[in-house]
Recover the amino acids of this structure.
């Protein structure tokens, strides 16, 4: 059933036009990140240890494209590594008030303190891409996004590992927290219908995002500016590039 659902999703993607809400950037203006190869698997526990992540390229620092938002501009850094089996992602989030409520798989975790990765493993098209959203509780919403607006939540990542570490007191509104970190390992086998695992020189496109704060003071920060005029990260034509290197 899961395999059949994936095939249906991809057929829909090939048949649908892309919503043209964003202003497309040229390849030269899109951010790039070199994903370096790691020799040993990363321990997925939320502790972003310098020794494990020392092989990674310098961290991505998220940007704040939308001045209409009123939440605090708290820093987020991300690093990525890869090996034959997994893509590894690490987020470090400054946060003085860490909050999260959603505990059910595939619910809308972005309403909490949440980090995301949107990954297009076939950049020759922009109609279908994979999404993983994870809040500070470790609750996951994973789906295939079609046409930047349809969320196929029946898709579930096989073998996904997530680890979170909190430096503060979760959901304690009166104190001052310091931040939280999250690591994940994403098996390449999940993308087999669209692409083979990367080799040296492979380029995928992606956005990495963070939702932070509580209503009405929320803030979205991103790796790649979506070029949309409201805070929204789903613009696959403007994803940044992930370049896989030694």
């Amino acid at each position: 059933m899961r395999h059949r659902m994936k095939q249906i999703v991809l057929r829909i993607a090939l048949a649908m036009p892309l919503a043209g809400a964003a202003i497309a950037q040229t390849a030269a203006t899109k951010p790039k990140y070199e994903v370096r190869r790691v020799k040993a698997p990363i321990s997925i526990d939320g502790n972003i240890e310098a020794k494990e992540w020392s092989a990674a390229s310098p961290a991505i620092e998220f940007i704040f494209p939308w001045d209409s938002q009123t939440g605090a501009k708290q820093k987020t850094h991300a690093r990525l590594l890869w090996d034959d089996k997994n893509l590894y992602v690490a987020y470090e989030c400054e946060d003085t008030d860490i909050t999260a409520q959603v505990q059910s798989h595939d619910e809308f975790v972005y309403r909490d303190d949440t980090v995301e990765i949107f990954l297009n493993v076939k950049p020759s098209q922009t109609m279908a891409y994979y999404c993983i959203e994870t809040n500070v509780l470790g609750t996951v919403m994973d789906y295939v996004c079609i046409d930047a607006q349809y969320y196929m939540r029946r898709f579930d990542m096989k073998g996904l590992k997530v680890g979170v570490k909190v430096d503060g007191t979760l959901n304690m509104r009166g104190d001052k927290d310091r931040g939280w970190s999250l690591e994940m390992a994403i098996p390449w086998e999940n993308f087999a219908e669209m692409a083979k695992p990367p080799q040296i020189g492979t380029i995928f496109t992606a956005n990495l995002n963070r939702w932070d704060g509580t209503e009405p003071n929320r803030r979205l920060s991103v790796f790649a500016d979506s070029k949309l005029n409201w805070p929204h990260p789903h613009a696959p034509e403007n994803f940044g590039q992930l370049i896989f290197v030694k």
Remarks:
- The CA atoms of residues 130 and 144 lie 5 Å apart.
- The longest helix spans residues 2-15.
- The chain is about 5% helix and 35% strand.
- The radius of gyration is 17 Å.
